[in-house]
């Protein structure tokens, strides 16, 4: 095989695109608000109506905020599906889409977090589509150019960033799918009740 003629961009996209299209997205279909907010342990970080969180920081610009604590803790707080999707949507995708692909500016502080599972999935679908389109437009040459300012390793090639983001997407969406499984099975096993502290309420 001639490596110079190989479509490296397509291969990089396929790492995530195949996983998204054939494994992850279908597993998220039908996500309920109860699952989205479900906390299998006490005091898990989540997404909550503004003013109802006890976390040290409540980030976000809309009616809902995401829990955060800038101080390291041991163990780190457990996080709900809502929190994990918020992290993927904003920190993994939207901020990078803005930095590299011309999407609107995005940060944890300025994002309008989704108060429902359906709204979160809409945000996720949008950001995944922007990311994949942006990577596609890089071509092979764009994968070689430096990431630039704003990334921890600005001189590293965009290829490194693409691989890093795909690793983030794969492992965080796997966590979300596992939480869905845990939610389902803890409600089917007689005599066992997991801690359930819903974090989503009606929009104020």
SSE blueprint and pairings:
Elements (H helix, E strand, L loop, with lengths): L7 H21 L4 H5 L9 E3 L7 E3 L4 E5 L12 H21 L15 H28 L13 H29 L18
Antiparallel strand pairs: 1-3, 2-3
Helix pairs in contact: 1-4, 1-5, 3-4, 3-5, 4-5
Task: Give a structural overview.
- The chain has 204 residues and is mainly alpha-helical.
- The chain is built from 5 helices and 3 strands.
- It has a 3-stranded antiparallel β-sheet.
- Strand 2 and strand 3 form a beta hairpin.
- The longest helix has 29 residues.
- It starts with 7 loop residues before the first helix and ends in an 18-residue tail after the last helix.
- About 4% of the residues have low confidence.
Instruction: State the total count of DSSP E strands.
Output: 3
What is the distance, rounded to the nearest whole angstrom, between the alpha carbons of the first and last residues?
A: 60 Å
Give the percentage of residues in beta strands.
Answer: 5-15%
Number of helices: 5
Contiguous runs where pLDDT drops below 50 for at least 5 residues: 191-199
Kindly name the structural category: mainly alpha
- Shape verdict: globular
In short:
The protein has 204 residues and is mostly helical. It is 51% helix and 5% strand. Helix 1 runs parallel beside helix 5, helix 3 packs parallel to helix 4 and helix 4 packs antiparallel against helix 5.
């Amino acid at each position: 095989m001639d490596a110079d003629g190989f479509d490296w961009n397509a291969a990089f996209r396929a790492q995530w695109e195949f996983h998204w299209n054939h494994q992850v997205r279908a597993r998220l279909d039908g996500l309920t608000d109860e699952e989205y907010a479900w906390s299998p342990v006490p005091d898990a970080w989540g997404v909550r109506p503004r003013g109802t969180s006890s976390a040290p920081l409540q980030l976000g610009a809309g009616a809902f905020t995401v829990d955060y604590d800038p101080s390291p803790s041991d163990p780190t707080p457990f996080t709900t599906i809502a929190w994990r999707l918020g992290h993927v949507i904003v920190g993994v995708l939207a901020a990078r889409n803005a930095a590299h692909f011309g999407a609107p500016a995005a940060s944890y502080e300025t994002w309008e977090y989704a108060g429902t599972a359906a709204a979160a999935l809409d945000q996720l679908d949008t950001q995944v589509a922007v990311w994949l389109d942006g990577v596609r437009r890089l071509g092979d040459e764009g994968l070689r150019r430096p990431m630039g300012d704003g990334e921890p390793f600005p001189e590293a090639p965009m290829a490194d960033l693409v691989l890093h983001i795909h690793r983030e997407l794969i492992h965080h969406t796997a966590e979300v799918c596992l939480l869905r499984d845990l939610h389902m099975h803890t409600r089917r096993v007689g005599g066992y009740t997991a801690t359930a502290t819903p974090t989503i309420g009606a929009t104020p």
